[in-house]
Design goal:
The protein is of the alpha/beta class and 389 residues long. It is 41% helix and 12% strand.
Amino acid sequence: MSGHGVTRRRAFRAFAGFVAGSPLLRAQTDPLRYRDRVPGFAELATTYDFEQVAYARLPRSAYDYPASTTDSGFTLRRNRQAFDWVQFVPARLANVQKPLTATSVLGTEMAFPLLVSPTAGHSQFHPDGEMATRRGAVGAARTSMIVSNNSSFPIDKIGAVADSPFWFQLYPKRELDENRRVLDAAQSAGCRAVVVTVDQQAPFSEVTAHDQNLSGLTAPRQARRAAASNPYRVPDDRLWYEWLFFEKIRPFVKVPLLAKGILTAEDARLALQHGVDGIYVSNHGGRSLDYAPSTLEVLPEIVEAVHGQAPVLFDSGIRRGTDILKALVLGANAVCVGRVPLWGLGAFGPAGVQRVLEILQAELVQAMVDVGIPSVSSLERRCLRTDFP
């Protein structure tokens, strides 16, 4: 048509405008991910805000790495749900003006009972990788970092970033000399403790490998490890783990030794019997065994089993300062955070790491004031009411 009539092009343009503005189309977007713009650094008030920015700025494969879980994701969800089963019982008019948060764990002095958990491959979040993470952690009241065995940079370079204490995480190797070589390098670089991961013997997640593949990450680590000599695709390079490993490496570990991945009182007692100096309660952030219990649920029984013989560390699910306080009251000597610093690193580099840790620290102080707790050395069980199923 022509003249005063409606041309096909005009009709199509009007229809396209109607569709673009339709609330039906808007309803198909993800409301949890939708942002008109990426917010500025000063606008971010919680650790969750940094996740949104990291999601917007990172390649999908990088974001998916810490976001991933095992199989159905039950354990990841339960880690967070468990914090909803714990309520504070505040003491009013307790005159808590400036809570004392300083503590010491296995000889490492800490301004807050908070460490950065070991996580692998930080270079996918920032060009300087773990060195950037460590700079950010040191900026947040000299927070200690546990450097992963699978770091992007050599341990000596990461250790040289600052003069503040750091720890090292080890995946056991079958050949004893290989463990000695890695541990000698970590101790020469100045690590103050060694954390041995004892879970993740046979992890395989089709969902994680599939999503990473679609995201453009070639040959995911889990997919490479899945090439096993059995018909069940169970990686068999870690199935040999045994408690005697701690006795074998003890002669050449001159710093405190911890077992990470403890979820039962029985395993905590066995770890102590084999010379471990600290117990690290963790389910690998829900990335190891599907349908494992949340760490917060099992923390009290493990603390009771340890009976003060060794410090107890805790991770998996920490997102807020209130989460930290709940774990501390239930018996943890310190907590560790893994995903949260990676959100900060991916969003704003070292400054992002520093800021998310400072947010957690500030939230912890606020929670202590509100509940009426003067110091982390005077925590009382009366502060909490638990309703674990």
